[in-house]
Amino acid sequence: MKVLVPIKQVIDANVRPRVKADGTGVDLANVKLSINPFCEIAVEEAIRLKEKGKASEIVVVSIGPAKAQEIIRSAYALGADRGLFVETEERVEPLAVAKVLQAIIAAEQPGLVILGKQAIDDDSNQTGQMLAGLLGWPQATFASKLEVDGDRATVTREVDGGLETLALTLPAIVTTDLRLNNPRYPTLPNIMKAKKKAIDVKKPEDFGIDITPRLKVLKVSEPPARKPGIKVASAEELVKDLKAAGVL
Amino acid sequence: MASYKAPLRDMRFVLFELMDGEDIATLPGYEEATRDLIDSILEEAARFCEEVLLPLNRSGDEEGCVFENGVVRTPKGFPEAYKAFCEAGWPGITASPEFGGQGLPKVVNGLIEEMICSSNLSFGLYPGLSHGAYVALESHGSKELKDKYLPKLVDGIWSGTMCLTEPQCGTDLGLCRTKAVPAEDGSYRITGTKIFISAGEHDLTDNIIHLVLARLPDAPKGIKGISLFLVPKFLVHDDNDLGARNSVSCGSIEHKMGIKASATCVMNFDEAVGWLVGEPHKGMRAMFTMMNTERLAVGLQGLGIAEVSYQGAVAYARERLQGRSLTGAKYPEKPADPIIVHPDIRRMLLTQRAYAEGCRALGAWVARHLDLHHHPDATMRQQAEEFVSLMTPVVKALLTDLGSEAANLGVQVFGGHGYIREHGMEQYVRDARIAQIYEGTNGVQALDLVGRKMPADMGRLLRRFFHPVSNYIEEKASQAALTEFVDPLGKAFTRLQQATIKVAQAGLRNPDEAGAAATEYLRLFGLTALAYLWARMAEVSLPKAERDDVQGFYAAKVATARFFMQRLLPQTGALFSSIMAGSKSTMAFDEAAF
Q1: B424 with B315: CB under 8 angstroms?
Q2: Residues A89 and A65 sit within 8 Å (Cβ to Cβ)
Q3: pLDDT tens figures, B532-545
Q4: pLDDT tens-digit profile of B443-502?
Q5: Chain A 164-183, CB below 8 Å of chain B: which residues?
Q6: Distance, in angstroms, between A208 CA and closest chain B CA?
Q7: Is the C-alpha dihedral spanning A111, A116, A119, A125 positive or negative?
Q8: Bigger pLDDT: A31 or B167?
Q9: Residue among A79, A76, A136 nearest A106 (CA)
Q10: Given an 8 Å threshold on Cβ–Cβ distance, is B41 in contact with A188?
C-alpha cells in the first residue's frame, strides 16, 4: 500500500514570529523555517507503517515557494521514499491545497493519506477535511492511534471526556494529533542520502487548478502588549476593583 | 534549569563568512560537503544535543557512575542516549566510508563536538575516546585489525579507550611498566595496571577496545621501548561474534571533581590477550596520532563550556533584578534594574563572549587545516600539517584555560546562585577543570610549543602562523576603518615576535629559560591568534553591519571585536614583561624554602 503524506513548511516553532512593518503578514526573511510539527508526526507514522510491513512506499507532497523544497529533504532524511513538490509563490489556502492534492491522489492512487491536523502558522485545520470531502473518502481527524489491517484502518481520537475509536475502509484520510507518536531523529547517513535524492517539481497549472486565494488579508498585527498588573492591598479592594471593571 | 541553544548562526559565520567554507567541497573526498548539507547536519546535531544530551547533564553529574563487582553503571538515561546517538550515526561523522563512516570534514565535526561538550561534556567523552582509538587504529593498525574492529567502533556498537597512564607514569610515559609477552599464535599477553582510563568500563557498549601502551621483553629503556597493543574486553571470533571475556578488568573508578558521569577507571590487565598495533617499540608514534586528535578535541571541550556558561550567565543577567544602574534607573517600572546594566557584569559577559566566539574561530581555523590533508597539492598538505602541529598545543591549552576562566565568570555573574548546585553553573567550573589537565597538562602543552614546535626545522613551523598574520597586518595597515582592530593586533604581534626571539635564544643557552616562560608565551601566542581572528571577523562584519543587519548580528560582532581589542588583548603587555623578565626569580628560589 502506498501512503501519501502532504507536508507544509512553517515558521519554526521555537522562533518568535514578528509582523512585517507594513502589516501584510509575518516576516519570514532570515527566520528558521521547518516542517510543520503535525506534518512531521504524519511522516513518522507513515514510516512506522512501512516498518511494520503495512506500507510499501511513502510519497511526500508539499506546495509552496521554492525554498519550501527543503522540507521534502527533511522528510527524506526521516525515511520518505519519494517527494513531489508543487511550486508556487502564491499564498495557498486550504481549499486550493486540497484540490491540488486531489489531482495528485488521482494519479498516485495511495491507499492512505496522512496529514497533520493543522499547520502551526495559520491554524486552519481544514485541508484534511476538505480533501476527504472532495474525494468522497472516509476521514478520521486528530488521530492519537492508528492501526491498519488489510483494507481497514482503526483510528483512536482524543475527544472531550475520553477516546473515540473509528473504523474506516481504505482508502481514507487520517489527520494526526500531537500524541500519535514522537518523530525520530534523522540519521546522519539518511541526511546525506536525502541531499542526493531527486524531487519531482510541478506547478499548480500542471494540474489545471486555479489556486487564486479567495480570502483577502486586510491586516496582520501583533497582539497588544500586556499591560502591567497592579497589587491590591486587601480582598475588599480587589472586589471593589473587579466591580468597577464590570466583571463582578 | 540549564538552557542551551547551539550557536548555529555564529558557526555558520565562522564557516562560510570568516572562512570560505564553500570550497571544502572542492577537496577530493569532500565533494558531498556542500553548504546545504553542512547546514542540515549542524541543525540536526544541534537538535540532538539540545533535546537528548542537555537534559542528562545535571542528573548525570548528581548521580555519577556506580562501580559494583567489577561492573560500571553509567547514570540514568545514558545508555538510551548513547544508543540514540549511535542510531543517528553521529559516531561516524569523519570516519572513512570504507569502515562505515560518512567521511565528512573535520571542521564540521569540530563544531558538532563543541555542541556535544556544551550539552554534556561527560557524555561526549565516551564517543570521543572511541574516535581517538579509531584514528590511531586507522593510521597504524594492520588490515586484519582494521577490518575486524573499525566498523564496530564507527557505528558505536563497541567503544574504545586509550590506556597510557600508570600509577608511577603520567606525563613521563617512558616510565611505563606494563609488560607484553609474545604468544605462540602471534598475539601477546599484556600484564599491568593502568589508571585514569576514561570509559575503561561501562554499560553503553557490548565490547570495549583498549589501546594499551606496554613494553616488549626486548624493549629498550624509556620512551623508545614502548609499543601499542589492542586489547578487547571480549575476544572477537573471526565471524565477528563475541567470544570469551579477556582477562582485563576494572578495579575501581575514581571519585572526581567533575565529569562525574564519565567513568574514570583503574584497569587491570592480567595476561590479557592483545595484538600489536604498528611496529614494535614504535608505540609512541601511534599514540601521538591519537593524542593530537584528542588534544584538539579537548580544546573544544573548553570552548563548549565557555559557550554554555555564557548563555546561562546572559539569561540570568537579564532577569535578575538587583540595584539600580550607576547612571540612574534603566527600568523604572521594575523594583530594580536587571544586573545586565552594571559595568562589571557586562565586563564578565563580554569576556565570556569574546573568548567563546574567538576560540570558535580559532578551533575552526585549525580544523580547516586538518581537512587540507585531502588537498591534491603536496606542498599545501605539508604546510597545513605544519600549521596544525604548531597550533595543536595552543588550541589545547588556550581553549581549556579560557574555558575555565569563562566558567568561573559564569558563576560570578550568578553570585551565590552560581555557587549552589541547582543552576548548574558550578558544574561547568568542575567539568571544565579536567580539560586543563588531561591529554597533557597545559604546562606540558606550553613546553611542547617552546621546546618542540618553536625550534623545529629552524622555526619553519612558526612561519605557518607568523607569515599569514604579518601579511595581514601589512595589507590592512592603510585601511582607516580597520585601524582600531589592526593596530592592537600589530602591537600584540610585535610583542609575540620579540618574545619568540627572547625565548628561543635564552632557551638555547639555558632550557630553564624557555621552561619558565612557556606558559606565558603560549598565552601570548594564543591571544595574538585570537586578535588576528577578531580583526578578520570585524573586517568581514563591518560592511555587513551597515546594510541589512536585521538581527544585529554583525553589529554585535564588531562590538565584541572592539571589546576584545580594548579590554582583553592588553594582557599581552603584562605577559610580555613577565616573559622578558626571564627565569631567574623563579629558578633561583631556594628549594628548601618552599
Answers
A1: no
A2: yes
A3: 999 999 999 999 99
A4: 999 999 999 999 988 889 999 999 999 999 999 999 999 999 999 999 999 999 999 999
A5: none
A6: 33
A7: positive
A8: B167
A9: A136
A10: yes
Helices B460-476 and B378-414, packing angle to 10 deg? 70
Interface touch B84/A188, C-beta < 8 Å: no
pTM of the model: 0.92
Q: Measured between alpha carbons, how far is B42 from B20 in angstroms, rounded to an integer?
A: 17
pLDDT category of residue B288 using cuts at 50, 70 and 90: confident
Q: Which of B402, B513, B396 is nearest to B450 (CA)?
A: B513
Question: Taking the mean position of all CA atoms in its chain, how far away is CA B153?
Answer: 21
Active site residues of B: 439
| Chain B positions in Cβ-Cβ contact with residue A185 (cut-off 8 Å) | 44, 47-48, 52, 84, 88
Tell me, rounded to whole angstroms, the distance of Cα B262 from its chain centroid: 16
- Which residues of chain A carry a pLDDT beneath 70? none
Question: Residue A58: what pLDDT?
Answer: 98
Task: Give burial (CB, 10 Å; 0-12/13-18/19+) of B191.
Answer: middle
Q: What is the CATH number of the domain that holds A167?
A: 3.40.50.620
CATH code at position B87? 1.10.540.10
Q: How many residues does chain A have?
A: 248
Is any Cβ of chain B less than 8 angstroms from the Cβ of A113?
Answer: no
Task: Look at chain B and report how many structural domains it folds into.
Answer: 3
B-chain residues near A77 (CB < 8 A):
40, 44
The whole-number pLDDT of residue B289 equals 76
Do B107 and B74 meet the contact criterion of CB atoms below 8 Å apart?
Answer: no
Query: Do residues B103 and B194 both lie within one domain?
Result: no
Strand partners, A10: A34
Residue-averaged pLDDT of chain B: 95
Give the span between the Cα atoms of A222 and A216, in whole angstroms. 18
Question: Domain check: are B86 and B171 in the same one?
Answer: no
**Domain enclosing residue B169, as ranges:** 158-287
Q: What is the DSSP letter of B25?
A: G
Residue B177 · residue B214 · CB < 8 Å: no
Which stretches of chain A are DSSP H helices?
A: 37-51, 70-78, 94-108, 127-135, 188-196, 235-244
- Each residue of A203-221: b (16+ CB within 10 Å) or e? ebeebebebeeeeeeeeee
User: Looking at residue B1, what is its pLDDT?
Assistant: 58
Q: Is the Cβ pair A185, B48 closer than 8 Å?
A: yes
B496-520, pLDDT tens digit by residue?
999 999 999 999 999 999 999 999 9
Q: Which residues of B touch A192 (CB under 8 A)?
A: 32, 37, 102
Give the three cell numbers for residue B391. 597550533
Distance from CA of A78 to the nearest CA of B (A): 11
Write the residue in B34, B41, B87 that is nearest to A191 by C-beta: B41
Question: Is this complex scored with an ipTM above 0.90?
Answer: no
Nearest-CA neighbor of B277 among B266, B288, B267? B288
A-chain residue closest to B97, CA distance = A189
- B119 plus B210 within the same structural domain: no
Q: Are residues B24 and B131 in the same domain?
A: yes
DSSP letter at B181 equals E
Residue type, B444: V
Domain count, chain A: 1
pLDDT band at B374 (very low <50, low <70, confident <90, very high): confident
The reply to whether B91 and B181 lie within a common domain is no
pLDDT beyond 80 at B438: yes
Task: List, as one string, the DSSP characters of A63-110.
Answer: EESGGGGHHHHHHHHHT--EEEEEE-SS---HHHHHHHHHHHHHHH--
- What is the predicted pLDDT for the residue at B238? 85
Query: Using CA atoms, how far apart are residues B407 and B428, in angstroms rounded to an integer?
Result: 6
Q: B260-294 burial by CB neighbour count: b if 16+ within 10 A, else e?
A: bbbbbbbbbbeebbbbbbbeebbbbebbebbbbbb
